[in-house]
Sequence to fold (196 residues):
Amino acid sequence: MRELILGLLSQYGSPALFGVTAVASLGVPLPVTVLLIVAGSLAAQGIMPFWLTIVVATCGAVLGDQIGYGLGRWGGLALITRFGRFLGGAERIAKAEAHARQWGGPGVFFTRWLVTPLGSLVNLTSGATEYPWLRFVFWDVLGEAVGAALYVSLGRVFSDRVVELNAVLGDFSWMLLAMAATAVLGWLLLRLRRRS
Fold:
């Protein structure tokens, strides 16, 4: 799959980047981080314009996020529950919903580029919990722009070490997710203990 997507990027450039980032923001497990890093490498080689690459990736991701938000808003919790197994199961959805309710805008922001595995679920749960749309758009655009700029810039700077950089970032993202889950679980346990 990764080779196919990278082939599309090298053959079609910006339209492929836009399409893949939009589809990935809907929750389809595509290697967006490596795609952005490779796009940055292509920008370093002069094949793709640097700023246009960031704008295209941001716009594609924001479009996908908005569709996810809309599905959650108009489909509600019934839709999320019905298709929950495709999104990682009830436990993952519950975590994303708790994250959306507790963290609001900053939660949307950080799931765009730092804790990306929760991004599509936060989109759905933000819509389902009726988080204000204009606030969602603000934090979404800001987060996606930061994420696109960060990963494209890393690809541009480390264009000769794209594969190694992708491996390190993938491990780092999962480590942050595990740390966040541990912190939330610890906080919940402390709350339960204080109530007892």
Remarks:
- The chain has one domain: 2-195.
- The mean pLDDT is 83.
- The chain has eight helices and no strands.
